[in-house]
Amino acid sequence: MWPFICQFIEKLFRETIEPAVRGANNHLSTFSFTKIDIGHQPLRINGVKVYTENVDKRQIILDLQISFVGNCEIDLEIKRYFCRAGVKSIQIHGTMRVILEPLIGDMPLIGALSLFFLRKPLLEINWTGLTNLLDVPGLNGLSDTIILDIISNYLVLPNRITVPLVSEVQIAQLRFPIPKGVLRIHFIEAQDLEGKDTYLKGIVKGKSDPYGIIRVGNQIFQSKVIKENLNPKWNEVYEALVYEHPGQELEIELFDEDPDKDDFLGSLMIDLIEVEKERLLDEWFTLDEVSKGKLHLKLEWLTLMPTADNLDQVLTSIRADKDQANDGLSSALLILYLDSARNLPVSYVLMDTLLS
Fold first, then answer.
1. What's the DSSP call for residue 121?
2. DSSP code for 258
3. N or C: which end of the chain has fewer CB within 10 A?
4. Are residues 87 and 214 in the same domain?
5. Where is each SMP-LTD domain found (predicted)?
């Protein structure tokens, strides 16, 4: 299948990624791919997990542990600035979810195929000419890491690639599904963190300036920094949409802010199935990958209701706690699907650019 997958990837680059890059920045309006060769080394699937519980009977959910290490040749240019760059090799490692839905009673038995990563995959790109690319006006504030994050987020939930296999399928509902629920994260406090700051060339141990990075899919939140404190209290609240479960996890990393490179203070990963089952978790969690430290979280699972019958009750519960209300807790979710547009004015700026 690999040669045909490569054909699909090339089409995706030219028809989806290229227009998206052009529209992202005025300086990239003449961006284009001049060559796309993904290489002969195929993608490896190292393991497959099939979900049989908590899934709709008209769908099949697979999680694929994928690994791709390929010598590819992708060339790009920005004609406006006579700038060229390229990619010599790409590595991708992560968990890709494949959803086959809806199941139908006629061939090919599957109405559509959806692909996405549950969380940001490990992505490494070996660039050629990246320095020239970053010299383009308006792009000189970017870096290799930021570019990787931008590319990764295009692949991560809630972004997805949906391929219809029959004409009757409602593609919009599959590409933009209603979230399964909302996760309210009370990022309260930590205790007994490691002291990373040192004085007198490391002889004297100091404290830390801790902050947290919270991720649910490609939704990322960053807490405030608490200066010189190993038992910080944040008392912040975040809300994240959950599109897929089972499989999605809450990821938290703590860091010590430093002028050069921030030090790692521990991490935590929580399966959202457990949160949904309990509805409310208020616990101290032991931090992973470090020798000590605990994190106090309060996690609420909020179910979406199709009508506004309970809206007054929800608003009352929010007003009951003024501290939380100040953090902007939500009471409802508005979903807007932009279908199409007609009779748009002609873009003379674009015409001038093309004519010049």
1. P
2. -
3. C
4. no
5. 1-166
- E-only strand ranges, 17-59: 31-37, 44-50
Same domain for 52 and 193? Answer: no
- Number of domain units in the chain: 2
CATH of the domain at 299: 2.60.40.150
Query: Are 189 and 233 a contacting pair, CB within 8 Å?
Result: yes
Confidence of residue 142 (pLDDT cuts 50, 70, 90): low
Whether a cis peptide bond, with omega within 30° of 0, leads into 3 is no
* Residue at 123 is within a domain: yes
pTM beyond 0.85, yes or no: no
Is residue 348 a part of any domain in this protein? no
Coil, helix or strand for 73?
strand
DSSP labels for 193-239?
Answer: -----EETTTTEE----EEEEEEETTEEEEPPP-TT-SS-EEEEEEE
Which of 22, 23, 40 has its CA nearest to residue 31? 22
| 273-296: burial string, b at 16+ Cβ within 10 Å, e else | bebbeeeebeeebebeeeeebbbb
Nearest to 113 by CA among 97, 101, 96, 95: 101
Percent of the chain with pLDDT over 90: 38
Domain residues for the domain of 71 are 1-167
